[in-house]
């Protein structure tokens, strides 16, 4: 499934990244500003550098061969064999189950290829779609972190989920 659903980002994908960053509330999904093609290419280059450093592995989520989202295992920590899962899908590709399938696929990659044991993720409590993705990908609820995130001056609670290699 990874071969048809996920692949590493490449510089030719910069227009897709730029369009995604321009969607409502998507800019916060990027660790660096993405407001131009050059910044989108810089973001893709950053992902490649993190892969080379063995700290994060990001993949384009494909729908009919076209990138429509991102899924990643980051904060790869070798001492405790843990990682952090994140995902987003462009507006036109939502509701097709792609984020759930991508989250499952990147989890299997993290367990099988990276040798990780525990994967974590969190979502805002006001994002039930992200919760459905987490649950559908086999991540169990572990608890609520109060006022965990700050966006535009507003604090948001998050729900933390985890999946173990033995689940």
From TrEMBL:
<keyword id="KW-0012">Acyltransferase</keyword>
<dbReference type="InterPro" id="IPR016181">
    <property type="entry name" value="Acyl_CoA_acyltransferase"/>
</dbReference>
<comment type="similarity">
    <text>Belongs to the acetyltransferase family. RimJ subfamily.</text>
</comment>
<dbReference type="InterPro" id="IPR051531">
    <property type="entry name" value="N-acetyltransferase"/>
</dbReference>
<dbReference type="InterPro" id="IPR000182">
    <property type="entry name" value="GNAT_dom"/>
</dbReference>
<protein>
    <recommendedName>
        <fullName>N-acetyltransferase domain-containing protein</fullName>
    </recommendedName>
</protein>
<dbReference type="Pfam" id="PF13302">
    <property type="entry name" value="Acetyltransf_3"/>
</dbReference>
<feature type="domain" description="N-acetyltransferase">
    <location>
        <begin position="4"/>
        <end position="161"/>
    </location>
</feature>
<keyword id="KW-0808">Transferase</keyword>
């Amino acid at each position: 499934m990874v071969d048809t659903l996920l692949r590493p980002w490449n510089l030719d994908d910069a227009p897709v990244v730029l369009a995604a960053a321009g969607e409502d509330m998507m800019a916060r999904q990027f660790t660096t500003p993405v407001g131009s093609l050059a910044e989108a290419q810089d973001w893709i280059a950053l992902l490649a550098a993190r892969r080379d450093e063995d700290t994060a592995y990001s993949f384009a989520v494909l729908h009919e061969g076209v990138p429509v989202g991102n899924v990643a295992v980051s904060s790869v920590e070798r001492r405790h064999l843990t990682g952090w899962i994140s995902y987003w899908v462009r507006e036109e590709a939502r509701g097709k189950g792609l984020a759930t399938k991508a989250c499952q696929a990147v989890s299997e990659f993290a367990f099988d290829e990276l040798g990780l044991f525990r994967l974590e993720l969190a979502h805002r409590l006001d994002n039930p779609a992200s919760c459905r993705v987490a649950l559908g990908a086999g991540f169990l609820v572990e608890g609520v972190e109060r006022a965990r995130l700050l966006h535009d001056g507003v604090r948001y609670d998050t729900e933390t989920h985890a999946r173990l290699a033995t689940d």
